[in-house]
Input
Amino acid sequence: MFYVMPNYLTVDGQSQVKPVSWKEKFAMAAKGSFDPYEFTLVGIVAGIRQADNSSPAFGQGMKGYAKRYGAAFADQVDGNIMVGGVYPTILKIDPRYFRLGRGSFVRRFGYGIDRIFIAREDSGGHTFNIPEFAGNASAIAISNLYYPAADRSWSASLSGWGTQMGLDAFGNELKEFWPDIHGYIQKRQARHQEKKQQKASD
Output
């Protein structure tokens, strides 16, 4: 998406889609974790945390930044593997986002939000999205192994879990509407090119 963001977990259309194997689920989660874009994003997140002096026990300077970068990257991998690989494999749930792609803006926006709560089973049915909730919770629990003791509180964990759920909901909206944005950009570029050609020929 936006020509740089990885988008391995989006499907256009919902009928007669072949389910993915457990190997494919883990492969997609890994691709989303180790895409070059992710390394840049993690670097930005680590820089923001450094500026805010979050997790003060990490310290400052390059050493502190390296610790924050490592923690942020581990967070990304933990979340992707748990939400997209482990729980979907155990519960036989498809981790992909199935775009609605039609209807009003409000309907599609609401659809993107409710996919946080509703998941598609490998068999094609629908169920409560346990991987989203339990996967992010598990990733937060794992993060307690490498964050400073001062950050290992219930309130910090709950805040981190809520933030990740919000980011995932926002990600669904990007997946739902990016093709529309992309199409609009292409049309504008085409019109701009036509105008340039017309001016050149006059």
